[in-house]
Amino acid sequence: MDIDTxxxxxxxxxxxxxxxxxxxxxxxxxxARKHGVTLPTQDVTRLYSYSNLDTFLEVFWLVQxxxxxxxxxxxxxxxxxxxxxxxxxxxxxxxxxxxxxxxMGQDLGDIVAxxxxxxxxxEAETGARVLLVADIDxxxxxxxxxxxxxxxxxxxxxxxxxxxxxxxxxxxxxxxGVDPTTxxxxxxxxxxAGLRRTSHQGEETPPTHIAAGVDVLGCERIDHGLSIxxxxxxxxxxxxxxxxxxxxxxxxxxxxxxxxxxxDHPFRRMREAGLLATLNTDDPALTDLDLGYEYRSVRAAxxxxxEDMVEIALDGVEATWLDEDDRRALSARIRNAAASLAPxxx
Length: 346
Ligand code: HPA
Ligand code: ZN
Known about the structure:
The protein is of the alpha/beta class. It has a single domain (3-341), classed as TIM Barrel (Alpha-Beta Barrel). Helices cover 50% and strands 12% of the residues. It binds hypoxanthine (HPA) and zinc ion.
Protein backbone atom coordinates (compact mmCIF):
# COMPACT_ATOMS: atom_id res chain seq x y z
CA MET A 1 0.00 0.00 0.00
CA ASP A 2 1.29 3.50 -0.76
CA ILE A 3 1.48 6.12 1.96
CA ASP A 4 -1.34 8.31 0.61
CA THR A 5 -3.80 5.41 0.59
CA UNK A 6 -2.66 4.42 4.07
CA UNK A 7 -3.17 8.00 5.35
CA UNK A 8 -6.64 8.11 3.83
CA UNK A 9 -7.58 4.88 5.61
CA UNK A 10 -5.84 5.54 8.93
CA UNK A 11 -8.53 6.11 11.59
CA UNK A 12 -8.32 9.82 12.43
CA UNK A 13 -9.59 12.24 15.04
CA UNK A 14 -10.85 15.71 14.26
CA UNK A 15 -11.38 18.41 16.89
CA UNK A 16 -11.82 21.50 14.75
CA UNK A 17 -14.64 21.10 12.27
CA UNK A 18 -17.75 23.29 12.03
CA UNK A 19 -20.78 21.17 11.20
CA UNK A 20 -22.23 24.00 9.09
CA UNK A 21 -18.95 24.01 7.14
CA UNK A 22 -19.57 20.40 6.15
CA UNK A 23 -22.78 21.17 4.24
CA UNK A 24 -22.66 19.58 0.79
CA UNK A 25 -23.17 21.99 -2.15
CA UNK A 26 -26.23 19.93 -3.16
CA UNK A 27 -27.68 20.27 0.32
CA UNK A 28 -27.15 24.04 0.20
CA UNK A 29 -29.19 24.15 -3.01
CA UNK A 30 -31.89 21.83 -1.70
CA UNK A 31 -32.34 23.62 1.63
CA ALA A 32 -32.50 26.98 -0.19
CA ARG A 33 -35.27 25.56 -2.39
CA LYS A 34 -37.09 24.07 0.60
CA HIS A 35 -37.15 27.42 2.38
CA GLY A 36 -37.69 29.66 -0.66
CA VAL A 37 -34.29 31.30 -0.37
CA THR A 38 -32.79 32.70 -3.57
CA LEU A 39 -29.07 31.94 -3.78
CA PRO A 40 -26.70 34.26 -5.65
CA THR A 41 -25.89 31.28 -7.94
CA GLN A 42 -27.00 27.67 -8.34
CA ASP A 43 -23.37 26.57 -8.57
CA VAL A 44 -22.64 27.52 -4.98
CA THR A 45 -19.03 26.35 -5.17
CA ARG A 46 -18.41 29.51 -7.22
CA LEU A 47 -18.89 31.46 -3.97
CA TYR A 48 -16.23 29.43 -2.20
CA SER A 49 -13.15 31.59 -2.62
CA TYR A 50 -12.13 33.91 0.17
CA SER A 51 -9.61 36.64 0.82
CA ASN A 52 -9.78 36.60 4.61
CA LEU A 53 -11.81 35.30 7.56
CA ASP A 54 -14.50 37.95 7.23
CA THR A 55 -15.19 37.31 3.52
CA PHE A 56 -15.39 33.61 4.36
CA LEU A 57 -17.83 34.32 7.19
CA GLU A 58 -20.23 36.03 4.78
CA VAL A 59 -20.57 32.73 2.90
CA PHE A 60 -20.59 30.69 6.11
CA TRP A 61 -23.47 32.82 7.40
CA LEU A 62 -25.40 32.40 4.16
CA VAL A 63 -25.08 28.63 4.52
CA GLN A 64 -25.92 28.73 8.24
CA UNK A 65 -29.10 30.71 7.59
CA UNK A 66 -30.50 27.78 5.55
CA UNK A 67 -30.82 25.70 8.73
CA UNK A 68 -34.40 26.46 9.73
CA UNK A 69 -35.86 23.39 11.42
CA UNK A 70 -34.90 20.25 13.31
CA UNK A 71 -34.90 18.12 10.15
CA UNK A 72 -32.37 20.45 8.51
CA UNK A 73 -29.98 20.08 11.45
CA UNK A 74 -30.44 16.31 11.42
CA UNK A 75 -29.74 16.08 7.69
CA UNK A 76 -26.63 18.23 8.01
CA UNK A 77 -25.28 16.21 10.93
CA UNK A 78 -25.99 12.89 9.24
CA UNK A 79 -24.24 13.88 6.02
CA UNK A 80 -21.30 15.30 7.97
CA UNK A 81 -20.59 11.93 9.58
CA UNK A 82 -20.96 10.00 6.33
CA UNK A 83 -18.64 12.40 4.48
CA UNK A 84 -16.06 12.39 7.28
CA UNK A 85 -16.04 8.60 7.59
CA UNK A 86 -15.38 8.31 3.84
CA UNK A 87 -11.91 9.74 4.57
CA UNK A 88 -11.10 7.76 7.70
CA UNK A 89 -12.80 9.84 10.38
CA UNK A 90 -13.09 7.73 13.55
CA UNK A 91 -13.97 10.38 16.11
CA UNK A 92 -14.88 14.06 15.94
CA UNK A 93 -15.81 16.79 18.38
CA UNK A 94 -17.73 19.08 16.05
CA UNK A 95 -18.71 22.72 16.48
CA UNK A 96 -22.12 24.20 15.88
CA UNK A 97 -22.72 27.93 16.22
CA UNK A 98 -26.40 28.63 16.84
CA UNK A 99 -26.35 32.43 17.42
CA UNK A 100 -28.17 33.47 14.26
CA UNK A 101 -30.67 30.63 14.64
CA UNK A 102 -31.49 31.58 18.21
CA UNK A 103 -31.79 35.17 17.04
CA MET A 104 -34.32 34.02 14.38
CA GLY A 105 -36.38 32.33 17.11
CA GLN A 106 -35.20 28.72 16.96
CA ASP A 107 -34.87 26.86 20.24
CA LEU A 108 -31.49 25.48 21.28
CA GLY A 109 -33.23 22.29 22.41
CA ASP A 110 -34.53 21.64 18.87
CA ILE A 111 -31.15 22.37 17.33
CA VAL A 112 -29.29 19.99 19.66
CA ALA A 113 -31.96 17.30 19.30
CA UNK A 114 -31.84 17.55 15.50
CA UNK A 115 -28.05 17.39 15.45
CA UNK A 116 -28.08 14.41 17.81
CA UNK A 117 -30.60 12.54 15.63
CA UNK A 118 -28.45 13.06 12.56
CA UNK A 119 -25.22 12.14 14.32
CA UNK A 120 -26.75 8.95 15.69
CA UNK A 121 -27.90 7.94 12.20
CA UNK A 122 -24.45 8.70 10.77
CA GLU A 123 -22.75 6.76 13.55
CA ALA A 124 -24.95 3.73 12.99
CA GLU A 125 -24.14 3.82 9.28
CA THR A 126 -20.36 4.34 9.53
CA GLY A 127 -19.04 3.33 12.94
CA ALA A 128 -17.55 6.82 13.45
CA ARG A 129 -18.42 8.64 16.66
CA VAL A 130 -19.23 12.36 16.83
CA LEU A 131 -19.85 14.62 19.84
CA LEU A 132 -20.65 18.33 19.96
CA VAL A 133 -19.16 21.64 21.05
CA ALA A 134 -21.54 24.62 21.20
CA ASP A 135 -19.75 27.71 19.91
CA ILE A 136 -20.50 31.28 20.85
CA ASP A 137 -20.48 33.58 17.80
CA UNK A 138 -18.24 36.56 18.59
CA UNK A 139 -20.20 38.72 16.10
CA UNK A 140 -23.34 38.49 18.25
CA UNK A 141 -21.57 39.80 21.35
CA UNK A 142 -21.09 38.70 24.96
CA UNK A 143 -24.74 38.99 26.09
CA UNK A 144 -25.98 36.59 23.38
CA UNK A 145 -23.09 34.26 24.22
CA UNK A 146 -24.03 34.21 27.88
CA UNK A 147 -27.70 33.53 27.03
CA UNK A 148 -26.72 30.61 24.82
CA UNK A 149 -24.57 29.07 27.55
CA UNK A 150 -27.24 29.56 30.20
CA UNK A 151 -29.85 27.89 27.98
CA UNK A 152 -27.47 25.02 27.25
CA UNK A 153 -26.84 24.47 30.96
CA UNK A 154 -30.61 24.56 31.61
CA UNK A 155 -31.25 21.97 28.87
CA UNK A 156 -28.49 19.69 30.13
CA UNK A 157 -29.72 19.90 33.68
CA UNK A 158 -33.20 18.91 32.47
CA UNK A 159 -31.71 15.98 30.52
CA UNK A 160 -33.06 17.32 27.21
CA UNK A 161 -32.55 14.96 24.21
CA UNK A 162 -29.11 15.14 22.65
CA UNK A 163 -27.55 17.35 25.33
CA UNK A 164 -25.47 14.41 26.56
CA UNK A 165 -23.49 14.80 23.32
CA UNK A 166 -22.51 18.39 24.09
CA UNK A 167 -19.11 18.20 25.77
CA UNK A 168 -18.31 21.85 25.97
CA UNK A 169 -18.41 25.35 24.56
CA UNK A 170 -16.22 27.29 22.14
CA UNK A 171 -15.95 30.71 20.55
CA UNK A 172 -15.65 31.43 16.85
CA UNK A 173 -16.37 33.92 14.07
CA UNK A 174 -14.77 37.29 13.45
CA UNK A 175 -11.63 38.02 15.49
CA UNK A 176 -10.43 41.47 14.50
CA GLY A 177 -11.65 44.25 16.75
CA VAL A 178 -13.22 41.87 19.29
CA ASP A 179 -11.79 41.62 22.80
CA PRO A 180 -12.02 37.94 23.78
CA THR A 181 -12.08 38.78 27.50
CA THR A 182 -15.58 40.27 27.09
CA UNK A 183 -16.80 36.64 26.89
CA UNK A 184 -15.36 35.77 30.31
CA UNK A 185 -18.70 35.52 32.06
CA UNK A 186 -20.18 33.11 29.52
CA UNK A 187 -17.09 30.92 29.84
CA UNK A 188 -17.19 31.07 33.63
CA UNK A 189 -20.81 29.90 33.65
CA UNK A 190 -19.88 27.06 31.29
CA UNK A 191 -16.93 26.05 33.46
CA UNK A 192 -19.01 26.02 36.64
CA ALA A 193 -21.53 23.76 34.92
CA GLY A 194 -18.82 21.23 34.08
CA LEU A 195 -18.66 22.06 30.39
CA ARG A 196 -15.24 21.86 28.73
CA ARG A 197 -13.88 25.03 27.10
CA THR A 198 -12.05 25.93 23.91
CA SER A 199 -11.91 29.03 21.71
CA HIS A 200 -10.76 30.16 18.30
CA GLN A 201 -7.82 32.51 18.86
CA GLY A 202 -4.87 33.68 16.84
CA GLU A 203 -6.27 32.93 13.38
CA GLU A 204 -5.97 36.64 12.56
CA THR A 205 -4.98 37.99 15.98
CA PRO A 206 -1.70 38.11 17.98
CA PRO A 207 -0.67 35.68 20.74
CA THR A 208 -2.16 37.99 23.39
CA HIS A 209 -5.54 36.63 22.28
CA ILE A 210 -4.32 33.05 22.66
CA ALA A 211 -3.12 33.84 26.19
CA ALA A 212 -6.50 35.45 26.97
CA GLY A 213 -8.25 32.29 25.78
CA VAL A 214 -6.27 30.18 28.23
CA ASP A 215 -5.89 32.56 31.17
CA VAL A 216 -9.13 34.58 31.10
CA LEU A 217 -11.61 32.24 29.41
CA GLY A 218 -10.16 29.12 31.06
CA CYS A 219 -9.80 27.24 27.77
CA GLU A 220 -8.18 23.82 27.81
CA ARG A 221 -7.66 23.92 24.05
CA ILE A 222 -7.12 26.66 21.49
CA ASP A 223 -8.54 26.46 17.98
CA HIS A 224 -6.06 27.59 15.29
CA GLY A 225 -3.52 29.34 17.56
CA LEU A 226 -1.76 30.22 14.34
CA SER A 227 0.19 33.21 15.71
CA ILE A 228 1.57 31.38 18.77
CA UNK A 229 5.19 31.22 17.63
CA UNK A 230 5.33 35.03 17.71
CA UNK A 231 5.49 34.65 21.52
CA UNK A 232 8.29 32.26 22.50
CA UNK A 233 7.40 32.38 26.21
CA UNK A 234 3.77 31.48 25.59
CA UNK A 235 4.88 28.79 23.14
CA UNK A 236 7.10 27.25 25.80
CA UNK A 237 4.36 27.37 28.39
CA UNK A 238 1.62 25.84 26.24
CA UNK A 239 4.07 23.16 25.11
CA UNK A 240 4.94 22.32 28.71
CA UNK A 241 1.30 22.28 29.76
CA UNK A 242 0.32 20.22 26.69
CA UNK A 243 -2.47 22.67 25.84
CA UNK A 244 -3.70 21.35 22.48
CA UNK A 245 -3.89 23.59 19.42
CA UNK A 246 -6.39 22.39 16.84
CA UNK A 247 -4.56 23.58 13.74
CA UNK A 248 -6.12 23.75 10.25
CA UNK A 249 -3.23 24.34 7.83
CA UNK A 250 -5.17 24.17 4.56
CA UNK A 251 -7.97 26.31 5.98
CA UNK A 252 -5.39 28.94 6.90
CA UNK A 253 -4.46 29.07 3.22
CA UNK A 254 -7.97 28.97 1.78
CA UNK A 255 -9.94 30.96 4.37
CA UNK A 256 -7.64 33.31 6.25
CA UNK A 257 -5.03 33.58 3.48
CA UNK A 258 -2.37 33.73 6.19
CA UNK A 259 0.10 31.79 4.05
CA UNK A 260 0.20 30.92 0.37
CA UNK A 261 1.59 27.39 0.67
CA UNK A 262 1.73 24.67 3.32
CA UNK A 263 5.52 24.90 3.22
CA ASP A 264 5.20 28.40 4.69
CA HIS A 265 2.71 27.36 7.39
CA PRO A 266 4.12 27.09 10.94
CA PHE A 267 2.58 23.64 11.60
CA ARG A 268 5.90 21.83 11.48
CA ARG A 269 7.64 24.48 13.59
CA MET A 270 4.79 24.36 16.09
CA ARG A 271 5.33 20.65 16.58
CA GLU A 272 9.11 21.06 16.70
CA ALA A 273 8.57 23.58 19.51
CA GLY A 274 6.88 20.77 21.44
CA LEU A 275 3.33 22.05 21.01
CA LEU A 276 0.49 19.55 20.90
CA ALA A 277 -0.62 20.70 17.43
CA THR A 278 -3.23 18.50 15.78
CA LEU A 279 -4.55 18.38 12.21
CA ASN A 280 -8.09 19.42 11.26
CA THR A 281 -10.13 20.66 8.29
CA ASP A 282 -12.22 23.50 9.82
CA ASP A 283 -14.92 23.84 7.10
CA PRO A 284 -14.27 21.01 4.66
CA ALA A 285 -17.21 21.41 2.27
CA LEU A 286 -16.81 25.19 1.98
CA THR A 287 -13.10 24.84 1.18
CA ASP A 288 -13.08 21.60 -0.81
CA LEU A 289 -11.05 19.78 1.85
CA ASP A 290 -11.23 16.49 3.68
CA LEU A 291 -9.22 14.97 6.51
CA GLY A 292 -7.46 12.49 4.24
CA TYR A 293 -6.22 15.36 2.07
CA GLU A 294 -5.18 17.30 5.17
CA TYR A 295 -2.93 14.43 6.27
CA ARG A 296 -1.59 13.69 2.77
CA SER A 297 -0.79 17.29 1.90
CA VAL A 298 0.85 17.99 5.25
CA ARG A 299 3.01 14.88 4.95
CA ALA A 300 4.13 15.86 1.48
CA ALA A 301 4.81 19.50 2.41
CA UNK A 302 6.97 18.74 5.44
CA UNK A 303 8.51 15.44 4.40
CA UNK A 304 6.97 13.66 7.37
CA UNK A 305 7.32 9.89 7.68
CA UNK A 306 4.47 7.43 8.22
CA GLU A 307 5.50 7.25 11.89
CA ASP A 308 5.33 11.06 12.17
CA MET A 309 1.79 10.99 10.79
CA VAL A 310 0.68 8.21 13.13
CA GLU A 311 2.07 10.28 16.02
CA ILE A 312 0.01 13.26 14.86
CA ALA A 313 -3.09 11.06 14.74
CA LEU A 314 -2.37 9.83 18.28
CA ASP A 315 -1.84 13.40 19.48
CA GLY A 316 -5.36 14.02 18.22
CA VAL A 317 -6.58 11.43 20.73
CA GLU A 318 -4.64 13.08 23.56
CA ALA A 319 -6.32 16.39 22.70
CA THR A 320 -9.87 14.99 22.87
CA TRP A 321 -12.28 15.44 25.75
CA LEU A 322 -12.93 11.71 26.00
CA ASP A 323 -12.37 9.94 29.32
CA GLU A 324 -9.27 7.84 29.88
CA ASP A 325 -10.86 4.51 28.91
CA ASP A 326 -12.24 5.85 25.64
CA ARG A 327 -8.93 7.51 24.82
CA ARG A 328 -7.03 4.32 25.44
CA ALA A 329 -9.44 2.37 23.23
CA LEU A 330 -9.22 4.93 20.44
CA SER A 331 -5.41 5.05 20.60
CA ALA A 332 -5.29 1.25 20.45
CA ARG A 333 -7.55 1.30 17.40
CA ILE A 334 -5.27 3.78 15.64
CA ARG A 335 -2.11 1.84 16.58
CA ASN A 336 -3.57 -1.45 15.36
CA ALA A 337 -4.73 0.05 12.11
CA ALA A 338 -1.37 1.78 11.66
CA ALA A 339 0.43 -1.54 12.09
CA SER A 340 -1.64 -3.26 9.42
CA LEU A 341 -1.69 -0.29 7.03
CA ALA A 342 2.05 0.46 7.32
CA PRO A 343 2.99 1.52 3.81
CA UNK A 344 5.67 -0.37 1.93
CA UNK A 345 6.35 2.21 -0.78
CA UNK A 346 7.01 5.91 -0.38
N1 HPA B 1 -12.73 30.92 12.25
C1 HPA B 1 -13.71 31.56 12.86
N2 HPA B 1 -14.97 31.24 12.70
C2 HPA B 1 -15.28 30.24 11.91
C3 HPA B 1 -14.32 29.54 11.25
C4 HPA B 1 -12.97 29.90 11.43
O1 HPA B 1 -12.03 29.32 10.88
N3 HPA B 1 -14.95 28.59 10.53
C5 HPA B 1 -16.27 28.72 10.77
N4 HPA B 1 -16.49 29.72 11.60
ZN1 ZN C 1 -12.85 27.08 12.94
